[in-house]
């Protein structure tokens, strides 16, 4: 088989391009028929009820779970060694508070600078990692073992680990859950700065919350299918209060693509 050189990505090449994506896990179809393209510089929220497949979609995009059907391209390259992974930052869903990770915060953040086979971090890694910790308000905890940190602090370390790469594509799985409000705002400001520098952001959110001013477009999943791709829904005022933790779109399940009438309900 010939191995043609990868085509250089054009400026208008979608950063994320998904066609006919299907994922099955444990014998169960989790995602079906997902088509979506995210262009350079877009900030897109991924919404949907618990179990609708948001994390699975993000994990499939990043090659963490296998794709059963369809294709995924990042920066114009099919998933695999051709993807410029160095340009991708990922913040996974929050770790449980008590993990046995035998590393301190700055070591975890520095690991964000290791890519591919390169096991030696760049010379300025320490300074960059310290600066990233500062951006999430954790500079004073750089040498604290991660397992001694609270769940919210561990999440901030994972965010710093993604930020230290100065990613062109930042993918976040519920990044602000378990983080106090002032820190959430600091983090949103940081994402805003990355966006202003041209980064593309895909963020799974339970509710738009402090991210609302940044979100230009929302994708809503329901039972593993995309039912909305367009304007972000408005939070219902009477439900949009702290302490409410369940989010789901109000789309008719039989009418995919129901459009801007979708609202987010946040129930106690
Ligand atoms: N490794 C797996 N094996 C089998 N089923 C899985 C696996 N991972 C996820 N699932 C199932 O896939 C469905 C979608 O899960 P996923 O975590 O993607 O949903 P989600 O929308 O991110 O939910 P949440 O908001 O609760 O994080 C769920 O029914 C889940 O139980």
UniProtKB/TrEMBL annotation:
<protein>
    <submittedName>
        <fullName>Metal ABC transporter ATP-binding protein</fullName>
    </submittedName>
</protein>
<dbReference type="InterPro" id="IPR017871">
    <property type="entry name" value="ABC_transporter-like_CS"/>
</dbReference>
<keyword id="KW-0547">Nucleotide-binding</keyword>
<dbReference type="InterPro" id="IPR027417">
    <property type="entry name" value="P-loop_NTPase"/>
</dbReference>
<feature type="domain" description="ABC transporter">
    <location>
        <begin position="16"/>
        <end position="248"/>
    </location>
</feature>
<feature type="compositionally biased region" description="Basic and acidic residues">
    <location>
        <begin position="234"/>
        <end position="253"/>
    </location>
</feature>
<dbReference type="InterPro" id="IPR050153">
    <property type="entry name" value="Metal_Ion_Import_ABC"/>
</dbReference>
<dbReference type="GO" id="GO:0005524">
    <property type="term" value="F:ATP binding"/>
</dbReference>
<keyword id="KW-0067">ATP-binding</keyword>
<keyword id="KW-0813">Transport</keyword>
<dbReference type="InterPro" id="IPR003439">
    <property type="entry name" value="ABC_transporter-like_ATP-bd"/>
</dbReference>
<feature type="region of interest" description="Disordered">
    <location>
        <begin position="230"/>
        <end position="268"/>
    </location>
</feature>
<dbReference type="InterPro" id="IPR003593">
    <property type="entry name" value="AAA+_ATPase"/>
</dbReference>
<dbReference type="Pfam" id="PF00005">
    <property type="entry name" value="ABC_tran"/>
</dbReference>
<comment type="similarity">
    <text>Belongs to the ABC transporter superfamily.</text>
</comment>
């Amino acid at each position: 088989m010939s191995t043609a050189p990868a085509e250089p990505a054009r400026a208008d090449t979608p950063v994320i391009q998904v066609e006919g994506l299907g994922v099955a896990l444990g014998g169960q179809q989790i995602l079906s028929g997902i088509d979506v393209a995210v262009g350079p510089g877009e900030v897109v929220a991924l919404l949907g009820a618990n179990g609708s497949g948001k994390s699975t979609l993000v994990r499939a995009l990043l090659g963490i779970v296998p794709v059963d059907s369809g294709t995924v391209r990042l920066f114009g390259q099919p998933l695999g060694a051709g993807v410029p992974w160095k340009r991708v930052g990922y913040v996974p869903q929050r770790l449980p508070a008590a993990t046995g990770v035998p590393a301190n915060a700055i070591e975890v953040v520095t690991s964000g600078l290791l890519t591919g086979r390169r096991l030696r971090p760049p010379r300025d890694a320490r300074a960059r990692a310290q600066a990233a910790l500062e951006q999430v308000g954790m500079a004073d905890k750089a040498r604290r073992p991660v397992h001694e940190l609270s769940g919210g602090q561990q999440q901030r370390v994972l965010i710093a680990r993604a930020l230290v790469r100065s990613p062109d594509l930042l993918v976040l799985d519920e990044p602000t859950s378990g983080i106090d409000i002032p820190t959430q705002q600091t983090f949103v400001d940081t994402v805003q700065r990355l966006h202003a520098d041209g980064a593309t952001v895909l963020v799974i959110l339970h509710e738009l919350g402090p991210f609302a001013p940044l979100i230009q477009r929302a994708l809503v999943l329901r039972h593993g299918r995309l039912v909305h791709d367009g304007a972000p829904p408005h939070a219902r005022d009477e439900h949009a209060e702290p302490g409410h933790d369940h989010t789901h779109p109000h789309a008719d399940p039989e009418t995919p693509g129901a459009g801007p009438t979708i609202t987010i309900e946040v129930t106690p």
